[in-house]
Design brief:
Elements (H helix, E strand, L loop, with lengths): L8 H10 L3 H51 L21 E2 L5 E13 L7 H11 L5 H8 L6 E7 L1 H10 L4 E10 L7 H4 L1 E7 L4 E7 H5 L1 H5 L8 E2 L4 H17 L4 E8 L5 E7 L37 H10 L8 E3 L4 E3 L2 E3 L8 E3 H7 L2 H11 L1 H11 L25 H8 L8 H12 L24 H17 L13 E10 L6 E14 L6 E8 L17 H15 L20
Parallel strand pairs: 1-7
Antiparallel strand pairs: 1-2, 2-3, 2-4, 5-6, 8-9, 8-16, 10-13, 11-12, 14-15, 15-16
Protein name: Penicillin-binding protein 2
InterPro entries: Beta-lactam/transpept, Beta-lactam/transpept-like, PBP_dimer, PBP_dimer_sf, PCN-bd_Tpept
Keywords: Carboxypeptidase, Hydrolase, Membrane, Protease, Transmembrane, Transmembrane helix
Length: 594
Amino acid sequence: MIRTPLRPLARILDARARGENPDVIERENIRIRHEQMRDQARQRAEGRLLVLGMIFVAAFSVVGLRMGVLATAEPMEPRAEAPGAVILASRADIVDRHGRLLATNFETHSLYAQPPQMVDPAAAARGLAQIFPDLDEKDLYEDFTGKRKFIWIKRKISPEQMQAVHEIGDPGLLFGSRDMRLYPNGRLASHVLGGASYGREGVHAAEVIGVAGIEKYFDDHLRDPAHGNQPLELSLDLTVQAAAERVLAGGMMLMNAKGATSILMDVETGEVISVVSLPNFDPNDRPRPATSGDPSDSPLFNRSVQGVYELGSTFKIFTVAQALDLGLVNPGTVIDTRGPLRWGKHRIRDFRFYGNEMTVSKVIEKSSNIGTARLAQRIGAARQRAFLKELGMLDTTGFEIVEAATGKPLLPKNWSEISTMTISYGHGLSTSPMHLAAGYAAIANGGFKVKPTILKQHGPQLGDRVLSDPAARAARKMLRRVVTDGTASFGDVAGYAVGGKTGTADKPRRRGGGYYEDKVIATFASIFPAHDPKYVLIVTLDEPVDTIGEEPRRTAGWTAVPVAAEMIKRVAPLLGLRPTVEPVELTDIKHTNN
């Protein structure tokens, strides 16, 4: 700012010339200067007051907003947090198709020690050894009196054990809260659930991760907080699963089998309602994987998807269905079944002599290897392979547990004519029982491919058509005749019109090639009700032998079929299927004029 002089020379000289007092000019300029200084001071004060007022308004707004948030938020006890990365321990529940709990998180505690804070290490070691018999008192005492400042004692303990440790009363024994995975049904559906363990661990938290089964397959989904802890809903029915496991365990014991598996599948959705593999395990105390011996002997081995077997005569219906679909034959076409059927140095024989000729329907009913092989010759290798690929028999099933990815079918190196003939009756191609269930579902639902799934579906999930409806319908009639008049007569269940096919395949040796003479894989693949199929049931027994009669019997008709029949009796009512009278086909009547 430019100040005006108090005594400007021009005005002073002019005032003297007029005889006026020059001091008046000076006093006037002083007064004006003071007024300007006063106005400037007032403006600065007003600006400061305005800024201060705005600060007060903002501060009170923040305080009010925070009070509103606290008033609407759920009250929670404050907790001290240790520095470092946060461990997310939350994991969504797993439930069956009706919302019944299969897996959940359970709040428990870990136990650790800080030796510098311990009052009586000897008494603490003695008390802990009494509470936890697997701990050694001497080792504990050496740890407590050593140089270590932190010692893990137990990574999870029960409330009773926690109380017992409390009663020891040593301030150096401390607890950390954490979650553990709990399977309230024990061994039930153990191969589906798989199990969980701890990943990253801290004193006050531990990361729960899946190690097998569906827990590992959907690990990211179950741990993702974005899903709002919504439970993962499976297609399993807990009551059906329990009944199936009980029946299969009883059948396995009665038939002296070393292992067994069963699969119950909805033919239109591909939902697996029940899947059992025996022997099983408790996922709450999952055993360690075997490091030696036959992996299939381990209870961790899932026979339903990892058990890749030659499934024998259960494959014959695929050959006949394809021949019907291609128009090569009809159910009444007569097939030459004279044996043995020679191809080079190979000989194909039937289990017993069925006659020199049989209709296509009888080939399935009596399970003729020769008749099926002759049909395969008409189909040809290329068409057979293409059809089995469309059914999903040549690739992994895509079933949503990690073990299913290891169940890849074993194909012949050279798909020659002799391979085509042997594959037609279930030899030379190894698949899992889950593959077989999906294949039979396609026949049962009218010719549409289905994908096996462990997740609950809403409505039919039919894939591409792989078989015409007339061919599928004719195949179902043949499967029904196998039960009423053929090799699966023990499989008939009153009111449920069971249809199916038996399969007894020699078990290959683990070393040296060839097959065992007295060990078989016995399978019964069934659909019910045959006239309106709703479900497919596969029952497979590993090395069964029926010793009730005078001679030991190993074929599926004597071993797997009775087990499957008992299972259908138990589970069909649980599925809501009411016994019905099987419809009878009426003879065609032609009207004629007299």
